[in-house]
């Protein structure tokens, strides 16, 4: 099964109302190609609280804007 978001981009964000919960949905095979960068960004979020990559395009609220 191949999964993808409506806009075909990843979801990398904190769960609203639960700032200690991260959501990462790299979307099947498409995300595999970017797994190193996604993993690095997630590790930075967990350890430093921020990532050096701009993760705004992958925010959950893009579906409700």
UniProtKB/TrEMBL annotation:
Task: Classify the source by domain of life.
Answer: Bacteria
Q: Keywords of this protein's UniProt record, alphabetized?
A: FAD, Flavoprotein, Oxidoreductase
Task: State its cofactor.
Answer: FAD
Known SUPFAM superfamilies for this protein? Answer: FAD/NAD(P)-binding domain (SSF51905)
Name this protein carries in UniProt: Uncharacterized protein
């Amino acid at each position: 099964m191949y999964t993808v978001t409506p806009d075909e981009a990843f979801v990398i964000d904190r769960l609203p109302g639960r700032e200690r919960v991260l959501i990462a949905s790299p979307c099947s095979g498409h995300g595999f190609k970017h797994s190193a960068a996604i993993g690095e960004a997630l590790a930075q979020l967990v350890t430093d609280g921020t990532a050096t990559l701009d993760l705004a395009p992958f925010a959950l609220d893009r579906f409700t804007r």
